[in-house]
């Protein structure tokens, strides 16, 4: 049995969830893990002097638990007690002849947490420009909802800071232009993954 772990990182509202769901429908034995499921409850999230809840930082997340969940999945990818969503679609276009299990971890802060650096077989990062991000974000309602000034005062500056840190510390990131159509993004990433899996085969991996 072989496991393949895909990181699908990137800016808030970049289209990570949309792309992950689409990929999981076409890839064999594919599950999705959402970093957003590891947010701490509101009462445990720090508040700054402006009253902004500090959601867009690693401290707002139970990252150790996220790492534990990924490690449990790696040890036993078919164990349904691990809180990961497996795609039930029967219309997988890529059939796995041998036993390969794929995990797509999607989230806005995947590559800034050292203990996770070792797990990725492929790292993607979705970007969209400031204006588009602000527009998409304004159509979403989080719990708690963004207060006035939150995007410009917290979300975007934290995104830029983390992206800069990621670029200083991480190699092999495949950047994706999130303004492309859902179809374009899907086919680009899908083909890239299939090619990567083929390379494994050529190097004698059995799956
Ligand atoms: N390729 C695309 N082109 C245009 N709009 C898109 C595209 N993909 C997703 N969207 C839209 O952008 C918004 C955010 O998408 P999605 O929830 O997939 O992003 P996300 O990166 O998972 O966001 P977050 O992690 O902040 O919740 C949704 O309204 C979605 O319909
Ligand atoms: N899921 C949550 O608990 C929550 C609460 C408030 C804000 N957010 C936002 O989610 C985004 C990541 O997907 C971040 O930009 C958070 O601001 C999440």
From TrEMBL:
GO terms for molecular function: ATP binding; metal ion binding; nicotinate riboside kinase activity; ribosylnicotinamide kinase activity. Keywords: ATP-binding, Kinase, Magnesium, Metal-binding, Nucleotide-binding, Pyridine nucleotide biosynthesis, Transferase. InterPro entries: P-loop_NTPase. It catalyses: beta-nicotinamide D-riboside + ATP = beta-nicotinamide D-ribonucleotide + ADP + H(+); beta-D-ribosylnicotinate + ATP = nicotinate beta-D-ribonucleotide + ADP + H(+). One of its GO terms (biological process) is NADP+ biosynthetic process. One of its GO terms (cellular component) is cytosol. Pathway: Cofactor biosynthesis; NAD(+) biosynthesis. Pfam families: AAA_18. Belongs to the uridine kinase family. NRK subfamily. This is Nicotinamide riboside kinase 1.
């Amino acid at each position: 049995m072989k496991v393949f772990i895909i990181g699908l990182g990137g800016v808030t509202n970049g289209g990570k969830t949309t792309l992950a769901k689409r990929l999981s429908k076409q890839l064999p034995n594919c599950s999705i893990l959402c970093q957003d499921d590891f947010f701490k409850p509101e009462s445990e999230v720090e508040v700054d002097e402006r009253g902004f809840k500090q959601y867009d930082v690693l401290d707002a997340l139970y990252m150790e638990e996220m790492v534990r969940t990924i490690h449990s999945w790696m040890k036993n990818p078919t164990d349904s007690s691990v809180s990961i969503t497996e795609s039930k679609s029967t219309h997988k276009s890529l059939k796995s002849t041998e036993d390969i299990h794929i995990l797509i971890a999607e989230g806005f802060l995947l590559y800034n947490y050292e203990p996770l650096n070792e797990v990725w077989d492929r790292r993607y990062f979705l970007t969209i420009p400031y204006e588009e991000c602000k527009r998409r974000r304004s159509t979403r309602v989080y719990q708690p909802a963004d207060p006035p000034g939150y995007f410009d005062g917290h979300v975007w500056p934290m995104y830029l800071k983390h992206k800069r840190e990621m670029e200083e510390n991480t190699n092999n990131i495949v950047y994706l232009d999130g303004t492309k159509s859902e179809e374009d993004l899907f086919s680009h990433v899908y083909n890239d993954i299939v090619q990567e899996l083929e390379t494994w085969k050529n190097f004698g991996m059995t799956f």
